[in-house]
Amino acid sequence: MNSYKVALITGATGGIGSAIAHNLVANGMKVILSGRNNAKLNKLSSELGDSVVYCEALDLSDYEAMKTFVYNIKEKDIKVDTLINNAGLALDLVPFQEYNPNDIITMLDTNVKAVALLSNLLLPSMVTNNHGIIINIGSIAGQYAYPNGSVYCASKAAIETLSDGIRVDVMASDVKVTNIMPGLVETDFSLIRFKGDKAKADKVYQGIEALQPEDVADAVWFVINQPRRVQIGELSLLANQQGNGFINYKK
Questions:
Q1: Which helix (H) or strand (E) holds 127?
Q2: Could you give the CA distance from residue 229 to residue 73 in angstroms, rounded to a whole number?
Q3: Catalytic-labelled residue, pool 4, 63, 99, 152
Q4: 4 catalytic, yes or no?
């Protein structure tokens, strides 16, 4: 059923991004990889071989760099019909009044502005070709704010509304827009949030069988592999012992 050929994946070197890339390649798609760590990008590109049609380190907070990145892809006559806005992060876990302003800026730049701006750059050609899909990796936290996570939760709530808005704006075409909202996924997410404090990060996943990156990758493929008439607006994934974005049962 899949008619999509080339997927651009942001945050490709993270746990979820890498799993998505491997899954799509295993299912016959070509991929474009972007991320901030050039060494990790090259390693992933080497693993995926000829299925990688373009690979470049990219700082998503730099709009000029983003425009150059998209220009370079178009110059190579690569037609992106699948955009997976996967890059995102949380920084710290403190009451809002105690947040470092730079952390607030970084989260909003990465989680919201980059998604909006990259989608804005790639969407016109999808609409012109009447073919394309944007998959945003949001979070269940966008529906349920939890204590000390106000900025991250707000950024993911913005992605939910942005996804809905874009979907309405392109509904006269065959372009699709999906917001995938995972719950607790065992990746380096918490290690980044706690700025390298492994003890704090490990505690997040203790006592519960968290989702794995491959689970999110499977959800992405499910969304892509639907017939033309089917659009998955939202898809939420929770660990089995997770009730919502902040209520879970730990043994």
A1: helix 114-129
A2: 29
A3: 152
A4: no
